[in-house]
């Protein structure tokens, strides 16, 4: 389930590391859980609107985190679209049955609208403390009548929770403008708790293993003759342009890899086939490459990407690589855009997780021009691979990206910056962000040297020189993620434990006069 799935996986892992007993409860989407080695606990004959559905309760452990997973499996229901509300009407009753018979937790934590009805029923029918995490309040689920209320799934979960949160401090303040959120925040704990990434799993020193292991060791790019190498802060400026050249400037390599990926059996992994449009092959390594990875929804800024880059291609030498899947109309626009600017754009339409770190590692900058962004993981993932981010100053993007100052000659912060933030959601804002980024990392190297002292170093002649600004960005990005944005170090796990503790306290104290 994309970023939501990543967060739930990592959150449960680190809660367990901190000594908590954690069980993840889910539906068996596309048989992903039942295809793993598992134990069958029980079969539930669930009656819903006159029809009986038999669900197996299957239990397994996550292959990497070892967190227990309980899933409800019915061959027909498993194949229904993952976001179909019908699934989550059933899910609420299934959760109730399992928790009532097999497992009594101290607190039940629901994530996004699919869990809303289940949270309401756990609170009301089982009298269990509950919390609700909002990953994206724009998607609320269907309206439902419950206990005399007519609310969406998400609103039900919030209303009947003992505490709730969203996934960044800035976004928590942004959504308080919504009447329902503001009123609920007055009567129960509400916090903005920043997401993070697992730097044990995702880091440039683990690049090769991540890419190879994700395909169950069935595709090794090195055996296809494609350069890929682990790297660190000290040699990122050397290795990253080699990855850029091997995967994207030498376009045949990318095509070969995707052909292998498309031929692969994906029943036991997450991913889909990928279609390729456009060809950004190039000889000049100093032409900037901008990367984009994100779900194909209007929230992610596709309209201003198409508008801004149509003009940027006319005014600058640069290339754009995009990997996305989602809304069919946006996928079609990506295809048309790549075909219109086939020398400047490569659009990869599909879901290919092992390609994600390759795009970050090979790009000079990445873009996250979201209309809104509760937190976002893509900017953190980009930065951990040493790739600075051009992002809109909104939500979690504002909380995680340290922006290069507008005039870095008068007020230089090359020693801290991890990207460029722009304010206005239009083509002009994004254009300014891209131009500001490439101006100070590709074009004005000599101007920078006149104003900034590089200790014991000569003026950089290439963007990839060790003493060039881009090399400093690489170092800043990685260090910022490790120190401030990783689950290991950002104290968000402790804040979640505080949220759960506050919910437990509120739930039981309500009985006292």
What would you say about this model in short?
The protein has 513 residues and is of the alpha/beta class. It has 19 helices and 17 strands.
Task: Give a description of the structure.
By secondary structure, this protein is of the alpha/beta class. It has two domains: 215 residues, Glycogen Phosphorylase B (Rossmann fold); 282 residues, 3-Layer(aba) Sandwich (Rossmann fold), CATH 3.40.50. 41% of the residues lie in helices and 17% in strands. It contains 19 helices and 17 strands. The strands form four sheets. Strands 11-14-13-12-15-16-17 form a seven-stranded mixed sheet, sandwiched between helices. It has a four-stranded mixed sheet with strand order 1-4-3-2, sandwiched between helices. A four-stranded parallel sheet has the order 5-6-9-10. α3 runs parallel beside α4 and α9 packs across α10. The chain is globular, with a radius of gyration of 24 Å. The two termini are 43 Å apart. The model has no long low-confidence stretch (mean pLDDT 94). One of its GO terms (molecular function) is alpha-1,4-glucan glucosyltransferase (ADP-glucose donor) activity. Keywords: Glycosyltransferase, Transferase. This is Starch synthase. Pfam families: Glyco_transf_5, Glycos_transf_1. Its EC number is 2.4.1.21.
Give the SSE layout.
Layout (H helix, E strand, L loop, with lengths): L1 H16 L5 E5 L11 E10 L2 E11 L6 E6 L1 H4 L6 H17 L6 E4 L4 H10 L4 E5 L8 E4 L2 E4 H8 L2 E4 L2 H6 L4 H7 L4 E3 L14 H8 L21 H14 L1 H12 L12 E3 L11 E5 L8 H14 L3 E6 L3 H13 L4 E5 L6 H7 L2 E4 L9 H7 L4 E4 L2 H6 L18 E4 L4 H17 L1 H7 L17 H17 L6 H18 L4
Parallel strand pairs: 1-4, 5-6, 6-9, 9-10, 12-13, 12-15, 13-14, 15-16, 16-17
Antiparallel strand pairs: 2-3, 3-4, 7-8, 11-14
């Amino acid at each position: 389930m994309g970023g939501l799935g990543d967060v739930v996986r990592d959150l449960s892992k680190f809660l367990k590391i901190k000594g908590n007993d954690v069980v993840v409860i889910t539906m068996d989407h596309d048989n992903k859980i039942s295809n793993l080695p598992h134990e069958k606990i029980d079969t539930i004959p669930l009656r819903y609107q006159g029809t009986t559905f038999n669900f197996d309760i299957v239990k397994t452990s996550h292959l990497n985190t070892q967190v227990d997973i309980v899933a409800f499996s019915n061959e027909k229901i498993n194949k229904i679209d993952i976001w179909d509300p019908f699934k989550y009407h059933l899910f609420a009753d299934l959760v109730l049955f399992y928790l009532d018979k097999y497992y009594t937790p101290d607190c039940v934590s629901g994530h996004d609208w699919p869990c809303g009805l289940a949270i309401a029923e756990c609170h009301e029918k089982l009298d269990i403390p509950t919390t609700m995490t909002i990953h994206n309040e724009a998607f609320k689920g269907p309206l439902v009548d419950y206990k005399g209320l007519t609310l969406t799934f998400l609103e039900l979960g919030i209303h009947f929770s003992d505490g709730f949160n969203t996934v960044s401090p800035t976004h928590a303040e942004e959504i308080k403008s919504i009447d329902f959120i503001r009123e609920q925040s007055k009567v129960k704990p509400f916090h903005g708790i920043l997401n993070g990434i697992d730097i044990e799993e995702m880091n440039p020193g683990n690049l090769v293993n991540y890419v190879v292991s994700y395909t169950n060791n069935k595709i090794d790019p090195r055996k296809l003759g494609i350069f890929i190498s682990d790297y660190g802060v000290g040699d990122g400026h050397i290795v990253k342009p080699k990855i850029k050249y091997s995967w994207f400037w030498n376009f045949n390599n990318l095509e070969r890899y995707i052909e292998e990926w498309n031929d692969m059996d994906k029943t036991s992994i997450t991913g889909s086939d990928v279609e390729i449009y456009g060809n950004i092959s190039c000889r000049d390594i100093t032409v900037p490459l901008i990367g984009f990875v994100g779900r194909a929804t209007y929230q992610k800024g596709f309209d201003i990407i198409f508008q801004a880059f149509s003009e940027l291609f006319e005014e600058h030498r640069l290339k754009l690589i995009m990997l996305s899947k989602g809304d069919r109309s946006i996928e079609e626009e990506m295809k048309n855009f790549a075909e219109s600017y086939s020398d400047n754009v490569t659009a990869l339409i599909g879901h290919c997780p092992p390609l994600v770190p390759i795009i970050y590692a090979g790009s000079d900058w990445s873009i996250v021009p979201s209309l809104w962004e509760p937190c976002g993981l893509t900017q953190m993932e980009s930065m951990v691979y040493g790739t600075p981010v051009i992002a809109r100053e909104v939500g979690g993007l504002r909380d995680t990206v340290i922006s290069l100052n507008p005039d870095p000659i008068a007020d230089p912060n090359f020693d801290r910056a991890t990207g460029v933030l722009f304010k206005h959601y239009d083509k002009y804002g994004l254009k300014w962000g891209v131009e500001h980024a490439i101006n100070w990392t590709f074009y004005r190297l000599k101007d920078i040297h006149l104003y900034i002292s590089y200790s014991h170093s000569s003026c950089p002649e290439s963007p990839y020189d060790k003493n060039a600004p881009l090399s400093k960005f690489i170092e800043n990005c990685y260090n910022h993620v490790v120190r401030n944005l990783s689950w290991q170090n950002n104290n968000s796990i402790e804040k979640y434990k505080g949220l759960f503790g506050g919910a437990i306290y509120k739930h039981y104290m309500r009985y006292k006069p």
